[in-house]
Amino acid sequence: MADDVRNEMSFEQALAELETVVQQLESGALALEETVALYERGRQLAQLCQSLLDAVDLRLQQLVPDSAGGFTAAPLVLKE
User: Fold this and answer.
1) What is the CATH number of the domain that holds 66?
2) What pLDDT is attached to residue 52?
3) What does the radius of gyration of the chain's CA atoms come to, in whole angstroms?
């Protein structure tokens, strides 16, 4: 996927398009060439969604003290 497309699509946009791609593929009404092209687009969109989720996961970490007197990154735990 081109970098310019990556920078222009939000997670929500990519996910919505991916859902449309999946519905079209599941319909089974496409020619082989269309199916292959749509499958490739779906893989690109899935990779984009995963990379956006990974970036959010990195942002949602906290530093916690470790046994050596330093700090370690750990998943963010929200207290109620």
Assistant:
1) 1.10.287
2) 92
3) 19
